[in-house]
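Hi! If you just cloned this repository, the fastest way to understand the data is to look at a raw example. We've pasted two of them here, unedited. The first protein comes first, obviously.
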Amino acid sequence: MTYTYKTSGTCSQEIKFDKDENGIVTNVSFKGGCNGNLKAVSKLVDGMKDTEIAGKLLGNICGSRGTSCADQLARAVTSV
């Protein structure tokens, strides 16, 4: 199933991704944000389980924002 997550506190505005019944995440794409870095993050997490993504990226912050695009991705994949 395809999901769209509206981000908060980051330069990117939303994250789209597919997640199957086993929690495997694929086809991650960000709208906005640092294009090169977010393409790399998307490639690195492709095929990973949602809980593994959260374990690696949850709590990763960008400056004083209290979150980051990677943190928002972790929240997104575990919220659906």
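Ok, and the second one:
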Amino acid sequence: MISKLPRWVEYGSFILALVAGLINAIGLLGFKHQSISHLSGTATLFGTGLLSATLHDSVHLLVILLSFLAGACVSGFCLRSGALALGRNYSRLLYLESLLIVGSIHFLTNDSLLGHYLASAACGLQNALVTTYSGAVIRTTHVTGIFTDLGIMLGSKLRGEPFDKRKALLFLVIILGFVLGGTLGAYLFALYRFNALLIPAGICVLLALAYSIYSAKQNRQTKP
């Protein structure tokens, strides 16, 4: 249940959605106009490209999909649990995400497709970082499911069922973060091109540091 999640989840979800929005906006503007933080469009292009695109283009799209999967796999291996709680490897994963983003800048500025793959892996890692807890699934790199769940909640409310205000607030926070990230990403890309990815990379580092400090403080308070 969302109600069982710690209060810091809203803040972390907003920041991670902002990061994803930044990366996706820069991707749409600079990575052959392809989305980075979610795979629906990429999977569709891959499917249609099997009939019309060249082998090189099809392989490129397939590697993007596999890169996202690989990033999610890394998170799944490191977290070792679906429970969202202090003391897990979130900081390490955020540092790794930052490194992947920085690496993507190097390759993208040198016109290498490897930069696209690293950015996709970073988003896959992030999307798996916020995991399933008590039946509640939170995703921060895309908002299709968020809008769907919010619509279901509103429809149920109109039918007279109870409305989970905290769950709705969390969904709205994620949507707001993603949209703001897109706006900021477009602005920064116009100024700095692919170097604009230093901003989401830096945010990941700051979030990792904040989480480490908060986690250590909470552990000290809980010790007898």
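That's it. A detail worth noticing about the second one: Helices lie at 8-30, 40-52, 55-79, 90-109, 114-129, 144-158, 165-192, 198-222.
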